Amino acid sequence: MQDTLPNPLNDVEVARLRADFPILGRSINGAPLTYLDSGATSQKPSCVYEAEQHFYENFNAAVHRGAHSLAVEATDIFEQARTTVAEFIGAKDNEVVWTSNATEALNLVTYSFGNASAGLGGDAAKRFALGVGDEIVVTELEHHANLIPWQQLAQRTGATLKYIPVDESGALRMDLAGDIITPATRILAFTHVSNVLGTVNDVAALVALARNVGALTVLDGCQSVPHLPVDVKSLDVDFMAFSGHKMLGPTGIGGLYGRAELLDAMPPFLTGGSMITSVSMESAQFLPSPMRFEAGTQRISQVHGLATAVSYLREVGMERIAGWEEYLGERMLTGLSSIDGVRVLGPGLGAARIGTAPFIIEGVHPHDVGQFLDSRGVAVRVGHHCAQPLHRALGVVSSTRASTYLYNTTSDIDALLNAVADVRGYFGVGK
């Protein structure tokens, strides 16, 4: 993949990029830090936290509330950040709602639909109301954040929750999807990229199945927006959640994309100040999107930091990032598969995936694997990765996951492989 790009990333350029990430210069347990846990949270370039500090030192004020200069300047920064992030995902300004994270974004959708089911929102919101006989469809690949909110919504409304299963390798059973998605399906919620396996789902095929029955589509973009070029209009989804801390941005900031006409018709999730047009002691009228979903004091410095992160990603180039990670991912998968006693989870080489490799080591618990790798300075994720149903489908309780980003080098992959190769010997397994 990297050789087909006009100007692919390489180890020399990545080494220059790494200088923007001071934490990558750390040593862990006497070894250079090899950070392979970006699937959980990415590291931040200096410009991101400097942007937050610059905001507090020069522009700190509440947005959309004051007429003084600081308030106007802060509001301009806040809304310009919305424009920057919206353009990055191919959306319009009024189609991006700020949330604390992607989990809140997904809960915003489910609670809004629940409010519509309770009769709130008037005639415009009736299209989102659910009840007995309606179906919500998810997949067996989902992170808990795109599963539990739908479980709860089904329980509150009487709707039925169904799911598209995976096969023994973890690939989505698209051959069954057409039978599972029926005319009773009102919502199809699915992940763009599996947070465990790194595999990329066929969004176009799933959206087409939903469109055929008039269902709304909700995409979990947490693992795609940081790593792949994403255009929500080309994907043709109705909603998409994403999280800032996975894409070089600060913690405490995420976003929900939604088609403007849908957001404007949905009843609000949180209510309070700054999201209303008028209030009496008996009732309130709400602003259109995005402000109807942004009650209270907003995450202004975090929004500014996220916009700075997006600018950084755009400067490097998302196509180049995707190509480099695909190369690193193939290097990981090939290397891990060649080590005795290691089972790599998910479809084999050739499946569309980002630079993520989940694996188990025969006879060694993933937590022990993670601690051993940490002793070598290699940071990975261990556990069920907030995806217990997927792990059960794969016949395991938990796994070790290595995940790359634009700041990883081939030397990082080699450090992982060398450490993994020593795990079984250290624990006296397989002798």
Automatic annotation (TrEMBL):
Q: Which PROSITE patterns match?
A: AA_TRANSFER_CLASS_5
Keyword line? Pyridoxal phosphate, Transferase
Q: Which SUPFAM superfamilies match?
A: PLP-dependent transferases
E.C. number(s) listed in UniProt: 2.8.1.7
Highest taxon in the source lineage: Bacteria
Q: Aminotransferase class V domain spans which residues?
A: 34-416
Please give the catalytic activity noted in the UniProt record.
(sulfur carrier)-H + L-cysteine = (sulfur carrier)-SH + L-alanine
What are the names of the required cofactors?
pyridoxal 5'-phosphate
Keyword Transferase carried by entry: yes
NCBIfam families for the chain: sufS
Q: Any idea what job this protein has?
A: Catalyzes the removal of elemental sulfur and selenium atoms from L-cysteine, L-cystine, L-selenocysteine, and L-selenocystine to produce L-alanine.
PANTHER family, per database record:
CYSTEINE DESULFURASE, CYSTEINE DESULFURASE 1, CHLOROPLASTIC
- Similarity remark: Belongs to the class-V pyridoxal-phosphate-dependent aminotransferase family. Csd subfamily.
Q: What is this protein called?
A: Cysteine desulfurase
Gene responsible for this protein: sufS
